[in-house]
């Protein structure tokens, strides 16, 4: 990472910095809205459900338990906008698929001249997550590591390197986030033609480029989660809404009560620590003598 890059400007490190993927998507969102307005395109039938006085609609995704399928769709859409609206084609040899192919089959040069479609990126990531049984939280951390790599190493994600960058980010995120991490050799069972040595070398380079900074603060994780929801909303990628049932309302109330009790316990502990200095016994105070 360049020395003049302040921590506050890096979204993968600082919670107040705007995520790169959301910024890159706004150009397309504005153009789409402008085109619809000029062509008098109707938004069509409303598919999103809204709460009323009698019915409350909630989706099944929360910041602590995101929906896996929808999260992967949002993360791959973020990667798609990264590739589509990249600044240049800066890359490194370790991530170049032409130098380090993921398959033994000959890939035509024409393949690397076109940006991949969102559905193709989604299929690649979904296959890895399904085979390795990774979680939705791991997908969010993958995006954090991806943007941190692009910022620290000053490279772009493009048709020649996107698969290996995404693979490296998933590999690292699964080891840091999931309790039962997937070994490098396991990924070689999923991607049949890649070697363990290649995986190890890519992981080592990835860590070095991140300057071994694999920490993801809770505030940064939450920011990426909610920005992914904004991205989904901007691109009509709706979450699955369902009416709030009595059983689910009781579960939410129980979780809320549990979190409230934990918060009160933490506050009491903090109060005890702050008052501890006033509880010393036998401390003699003498008047100051000014001469």
UniProtKB/TrEMBL annotation:
Keywords annotated in UniProt: Cyclin
Ranges for domain Cyclin-like: 123-208
Transmembrane among keywords: no
The keyword Phosphoprotein belongs to this UniProt entry's keyword annotation: no
Top-level taxonomic group: Eukaryota
Gene3D superfamilies: Cyclin-like
Pfam families for this protein: Cyclin_N
SMART domains, per database record: CYCLIN
Entry similarity comment: Belongs to the cyclin family. Cyclin Y subfamily.
Name of the protein in question: Cyclin-like domain-containing protein
Lineage, uppermost ranks: Eukaryota, Metazoa, Chordata, Craniata, Vertebrata
